[in-house]
Design goal:
heterodimer; A: about 350 residues; Rossmann fold; 7-stranded mixed sheet; 14 strands; about 40% helix; about 20% strand; B: about 180 residues; alpha/beta; Pyruvate-ferredoxin Oxidoreductase, domain 3; 6 strands
Chain lengths: ~350, ~180
């Protein structure tokens, strides 16, 4: 859709808002290959990157696109690629290499039904792939999970800042619903997340007058790889201390807290409004960062409940459930963590949520 | 004087790809922005837009809209027979259903609890000189029937939708909207 300016509110698809935010955040290079349901991002950026004098390149494949991001990030540019599940699987080799080289970049995954080529409906079944690395080796990516067009926009800006701050890949895990739906949002100018970002003194910018920088991921015959892994783990521990984003709705005095993210969190919220309107006390806990997972806050909430009960709803077969169980392992018996999952592009529903809550609370 | 309804509407628009299903949805969405109402729109995005049935679901409310998934719309605008068959059972009882009479055998409707509004939009559009504006004729009728939006806001929505690239089509669409609006 075309942007509509009435005051500050603008009407766009999630995928387009991601593209405009990248422009505003100073993304200099964008490389991608089309795949439903994320193609509006390259479509949008094919026009806007040219208008703003940046680099847009439709690569010959997803593998090529991620390696172009590798190169651009190594040169110090703000770089981004986007794709959907099967395309993200193809990128995993490059994602592992970029993580080893500790380069900042942004990757958007508009998750669709899998495994295999699957279908083009919304899904969340790439949760484990996103939050545990996905490629080979011991690495992590920061994973952000928007649930509105405003958040698609804001979080894409944040993603570039987080990537530069920690020299890490930031993934935006969307789903086919959030990517495709149209909502009004405030298209503000770039709002930096931090006052200062570290200088990119590691970038390969030409070494006249200084020692050459080296960007590599192969460490043979030395203890360099052991040292790199130690550095990486220290960095990941630091990020876990510093970053945990979440939203709470009606969690105060709740008898049951539902944990959901992305499109599911919105369907859940609609159900919770109905439930609480009829006298129930059900809360919503929505992780906005999937890695690091806001585990500590979840455990705190459980500690405040008389008889804590949790319900995890996701468009996958118990992937986020593992993080909730880990977060609550010391405070909530496993039997009191309930689960509702759906796969293959099948969505949760308000009716299904009402029924499940009825089963749990009686 | 038409009063503007304040209840939440979940509107289904369905038809063949190419009939302007998505465009009608866009006009509605733009009109909501003009009116200050909240709107959430989801359109079909698969291969079906190249021949099969296409659909758009638009939620309009004065309150924040939570769920992007609408299983049971309470207003519908249906533009072909396959969509009529596919979606008629999903619509909430007593909902207005605006439909193209020349393409849908609505007398065979399996339900008697819907407020069917058959409009011969195809032939009206042909007489206006462009069959493609049938969607906006129906949209005019839908706005009049439901009172969900002020007609001035929809006119502004039309300007938005056709402003860039399709400006030459604005006037006939504006005319189509007026025609549809005044049919009932």
């Amino acid at each position: 859709m075309e942007a509509t300016h009435t005051g500050k509110k603008v009407l766009m698809k999630g995928n387009e808002a991601v593209g405009e935010a990248a422009i505003k955040a100073g993304c200099q290079c964008y490389f991608a290959y089309p795949i439903t349901p994320q193609t509006e991002t390259p479509e949008y950026l094919s026009r806007r990157m040219e208008e703003t004098g940046r680099i847009f390149l439709q690569a010959e494949s997803e593998v090529a696109a991620i390696n172009m991001v590798f190169g651009a990030a190594a040169a110090g540019a703000r770089a981004m690629t986007s794709s959907s599940s099967p395309g993200i699987s193809l990128k995993q080799e490059g994602i592992s290499y970029i993580s080893a080289a500790q380069l900042p970049c942004v990757i958007v995954n508009v998750v669709r039904g899998g495994p295999g080529l699957g279908n083009i409906d919304a899904s969340q079944a790439d949760y484990i792939q996103s939050t545990r690395g996905g490629g080979h080796g011991d690495y992590r990516c920061i994973v952000l999970a928007p649930n509105s067009i405003q958040e698609c926009y804001d979080m894409t800006m944040n993603a570039f800042d987080l990537a530069d701050k920690y020299r890490i890949i930031v993934m935006i895990q969307n789903d086919g619903i959030i990517g495709q739906m149209v909502e009004a949002f405030e298209m503000h100018e770039y709002i930096p997340l931090f006052d200062n970002l570290p200088a990119k003194d590691w970038a390969l910018t030409g070494c006249r007058g200084r020692q050459p920088n080296v960007c590599h991921t192969l460490y043979l015959g030395t203890n360099g790889l052991e040292k790199l892994n130690r550095q990486l783990q220290e960095k990941y521990a630091r990020i876990q201390r510093e970053l945990a984003w979440f939203e709470e709705y009606a969690c105060e005095n709740a008898e049951l807290i539902i944990v959901a993210y992305g499109a599911v969190s919105r369907i859940t919220k609609a159900a919770i409004k109905q439930l609480n309107g009829s006298g129930r006390r059900v809360g919503l806990f929505r992780p906005r960062t999937l890695w690091p997972y806001p585990s500590q806050r979840l455990a705190e909430l459980a500690g405040k409940m008389k008889k804590p009960k949790f319900l995890v709803i996701e468009m996958s077969a118990g992937q986020m459930l593992i993080d909730v169980q880990l977060a609550l392992m010391d405070v909530v018996p496993k039997k009191d963590i309930y689960f509702e999952g759906m796969g293959g592009g099948w969505y949760s529903s308000v009716e299904g949520t009402l029924k499940k809550v009825q089963e749990i609370l009686g | 004087m038409i009063t503007v309804s304040t209840e939440e509407r979940n509107i289904l628009i369905a038809g063949f790809g190419g009939q302007g299903v998505i465009m009608a949805g866009n006009v509605l969405a733009y009109a909501c922005i003009e009116s200050g109402k909240n709107v959430l729109a989801m359109a079909s995005y698969g291969a079906e837009v190249r021949g099969g049935t296409a659909k758009a679901l638009i939620s309009i409310s004065n309150e924040p809209i939570d769920s992007p998934i609408i299983a049971n719309p309470n207003t519908a605008m249906i533009m072909n027979r396959p969509s009529f068959i596919k979606y008629i059972e999903t619509i909430k009882p007593h909902s207005p259903v605006i439909l193209i009479s020349s393409m849908i055998d609505y007398h065979t409707c399996p339900r008697s609890d819907l407020d069917l509004v058959p409009i011969d939009a195809t032939n009206i559009a042909i007489r206006m000189g462009n069959i493609l504006v049938a969607n906006i004729i129906l949209l005019g009728t839908l706005i009049r029937k439901t009172g969900i939006l002020n007609s001035d806001d929809v006119r502004k929505g039309l300007v938005r939708a056709f402003y860039k690239g399709k400006k030459h089509l604005y006037y006939i669409n504006e005319q189509a909207f007026e025609t549809g609006y005044n049919l009932i």
